[in-house]
Design brief:
Pfam family, one: HHH_5
CATH topology of one domain: DNA polymerase, domain 1
Number of strands: 5
Subcellular location: Cytoplasm
Order of helices and strands: EEEHEEHHHHHHHH
Distance between the termini: 53 Å
Protein name: Holliday junction branch migration complex subunit RuvA
Largest sheet: 5 strands, mixed, barrel
Helix content: 40-55%
GO molecular function: ATP binding; four-way junction DNA binding; four-way junction helicase activity
Keywords: ATP-binding, Cytoplasm, DNA damage, DNA recombination, DNA repair, DNA-binding, Helicase, Hydrolase, Nucleotide-binding
CATH architecture of one domain: Orthogonal Bundle
Radius of gyration: 18 Å
CATH superfamily of one domain: 5' to 3' exonuclease, C-terminal subdomain
Length: about 220
């Protein structure tokens, strides 16, 4: 099993990249969102990967975080969802968006992805709702593949025309959500209720830190009356 690749991008296409790893080229398929986040041709890159093996097919799929890879694995476990549909969903929503949509039971957001009908979207939410808290909790412990050290690739030094890449957007928010989820669990809230509250709070205030998310989630979880 090939779980991660570190090398240089040889070329980019509409749905995949070719990564040169010490002279061996790996064709890696990615979502539109992941492709947009990758550096240019000739630049160093690290991707977590999932290898699909069938009787007549072997394909690698690449992801910038373990959370994205885990959602791909879970999405593909749902009846009627293949790798192409999974990448379409991740491309439309991103791993954080998928977590929020499934935690909130928001199948309409899932349906917005290309090639996903209402029945499939509802099945995804129903089948994976209990899995959302676990994937959301990964955000506080994982490191994006793009930030991992690459011992076999020398990163080009930043220059005025080649600035150092900025941290990926949303990374801090993911950690805040994971920390808030953990805190709510310590307070005795069930994983499903906690995940839904954190997802809703994060959707209403995308830039909120851990403390703000906990406060907002506690308000949502407070008994009404």
């Amino acid at each position: 099993m090939i779980g991660k690749l570190t090398g240089r991008i040889d070329y980019r296409a509409g749905d995949h990249v070719l990564i040169d790893v010490r002279g061996v080229g790996y064709l890696v398929f990615c979502s539109e969102r992941t492709l947009a986040a990758l550096p240019g041709v000739g630049e160093a890159v690290t991707l977590y990967t999932d290898l699909l093996v069938r009787e007549d097919l072997m394909q690698l799929y690449g992801f910038t975080s373990l959370a994205e890879k885990e959602w791909h694995r879970l999405l593909c476990s749902v009846q009627g969802v293949g790798a192409k549909v999974s990448l379409a969903i991740l491309g439309a929503l991103g791993p954080d968006g998928v977590s929020r949509a499934i935690a909130l039971g928001d199948w309409a957001s899932v349906k917005a992805a290309k090639g996903v009908g209402p029945k499939t979207a509802q099945r995804i939410v129903l089948d994976l709702k209990d899995k959302a808290p676990g994937v959301m909790a990964m955000g506080g412990t994982i490191t994006r593949a793009q930030d991992a050290s690459a011992d076999d690739v020398v990163e080009p030094a930043p220059t005025p025309d080649r600035p150092r890449a900025a941290p990926a957007a949303g990374q801090g928010d993911t950690t805040a959500q994971a920390d808030a989820l953990s805190a709510l669990g310590n307070l005795g809230y069930g994983p499903g209720d906690a995940a839904a509250a954190v997802a809703r709070a994060a959707g209403e205030d995308p830039g909120a830190g851990t403390t703000e998310l906990i406060r907002a989630a506690l308000k949502l979880l407070a008994p009404k009356g």
